[in-house]
Structure formats: C-alpha cells, structure tokens
Amino acid sequence: MSAAAPTVDAGVGAPAKKGKKKLIIIIAAAVLLLVVLGGAALLLLKKKAAHDTDGADEAATAQAEHGSKPDLKHPPTFLPLDPFVVNLADKEADRYAQIGITLEVEDAKFAEQMKAFMPAIRNGILMILAHKNSRELLERAGKEQLAAEILRESARTMGIEVEEPEADDKPAAQGDKADDEDKPKAKAKKKARKAAAEPNPIKHVHFSNFIVQ
Q: What is the pTM of this model?
C-alpha cells in the first residue's frame, strides 16, 4: 500500500501576502504624511521670512523718516560757547539779540583744538550776527540759515574749506554774450570749490538760548 501524497493547503500563503500589503500601505501613508508636514512647515517658514522682511523694511523706512539713531556707544562731543549779545542791523529801531550757541563736533580732541581758536571763532560769529535783522532771526528759516553760516565760518577759521551752498544763477539778458561766456567759467569755479571741500568735523550748530528784543 503506497503512502498518500502530502496535500498542500492553498490558504496558507494568503495571510502572508495580506500582511505584506498592509505593511506597504502603512509605509506609504507615513511617507505621504511626512511630505505633507514638510510642505506645511516650509510654507510657514516662507511666510515668516516674508513677514520679517516687511518688518525690517518698515523699520528702515521709519528710521529714514525720523533720522538715524544716535550712536550711544560713541556719543558726540559738545562745545558750549559763551553767550552772544549783539546789536542787530534793524534800521527802524534799536534791536539786539542774546544767543547761546553750542557746537557739536567730531570728537574731544577737535574740541580742544577749537578752544585755541576761540577768539577768532567768536569774532566771525559776531560779524555774522551783526549783519542780521530781527525779522530774519525771528523766522525758523532765518535761524537755520544762521546755523549754516556759523558752521561754515567756524570751520574756515580752523582752516577747513567747506562747500558753499549753490546760489541760484542770475538769468542772463537777451543778447548778453558776455554772461553766456562767463557761465562755463562759473561752473568750473564751482567744481573747483567742491573738489577743495573736505569733511567738516563741526557737525551741527545748536542754539541753547535765542532772545530777540
């Protein structure tokens, strides 16, 4: 009697195949989830970077509008001058001005150098004030003009050549060939003065007192 041939159960390999399919699906779902999370994180980072850039631009714009912030680690040096009392150039009445001036300079070393020239600096400022009238000094534009003149005159007293403000050119009359010929010369002179100008260690002129009577 021959032995019966062993029989193979067809259902034995099915659970193994199903298990492999489930594992592949789980792995694919995990990979997909990682891709979605990575994309979301990248989008958030881009939005944050754009927001930070906008904020930086707004801060830079505000700083430009309100002026640059002072360097607190390197504060400027201030040189106060003795008050000026001078008769003004008013013709209709006797008017005088009492003005306190403080010069803001580059550093303490230059401030010490200015003290040696102080008599000449005060003389130059007094000459400027003596040619002003009360109407000019009572206006804001007049005070700003005075500060600019004091700054240039003080620098020149120290031997520093500063650039002159450009004045409006006087219109030439019709047929005035001489004026037309002088224009290139005037432009050349302006360029020469600008080239000779150097950085001014006197940064600002501040008024600590301003009385006109």
A: 0.55
